Amino acid sequence: DGGITQSPKYLFRKEGQNVTLSCEQNLNHDAMYWYRQDPGQGLRLIYYSQIVNDFQKGDIAEGYSVSREKKESFPLTVTSAQKNPTAFYLCASSILDGNQPQHFGDGTRLSIL
Amino acid sequence: DQQVKQNSPSLSVQEGRISILNCDYTNSMFDYFLWYKKYPAEGPTFLISISSIKDKNEDGRFTVFLNKSAKHLSLHIVPSQPGDSAVYFCAAVLGGGADGLTFGKGTHLIIQP
Q1: Using the beta-carbon criterion (under 8 Å), do B101 and A102 form an inter-chain contact?
Q2: To pair with B58 at 20 to 30 A between CA atoms, which of A56, B7, B33, B50?
Q3: What are phi and psi of B16, to 5 degrees?
Q4: What's residue A112's pLDDT?
Q5: CA distance B67 to chain A (A)
Q6: By the CB < 8 Å criterion, does A102 face chain B?
Q7: Is the pLDDT of residue B97 over 70?
Q8: What is the pLDDT of residue B98?
Q9: Interchain pair B42, A106: CB under 8 A
């Protein structure tokens, strides 16, 4: 089955620690995205990548880092510089051929201990 | 400064009736609009989209209307079913969407028996 897999479903982090969220897709999509959702809010774009070894900052990139070493994988690191990391993180992917919808994984909920 | 606005945080509709969800936007450069449905602790699921060159798109029980002069779009669901109870997000895209989606804050639709 083709899709987007995010792991883990739930993640806990101590203050001052970096943590990495995994996102893998087998849809052969070129573009991948990371969004953050807070309660009562829409999704906000953190980072995106249209091609391997290249990525761009979204609207709220501060305190986050990403890599795109493989087409299938786009991990997100939440660094200790992110002051409010508790949120629901969503990964998405899409093809880059005209207007195409993004398809989402089931998300990772990150909480601070 | 929100570019995509969903001004109704929640909407309650009786089963079998029409549900109408509204969305307003401020950026006239948006050229593609999407609706997503989201259950708690899951990723958004793509429902339906519309290009800015059209004013209506229909897919089964779902119809999206676009009024460019008013910068307004709406999603009609008819007839509404219990499984339609979810949060619905409106999203907009600039120039093909490779740079990510801009989301509204969502409307929680509740279908009452």
Answers
A1: yes
A2: B7
A3: 95, -20
A4: 87
A5: 19
A6: yes
A7: no
A8: 73
A9: yes
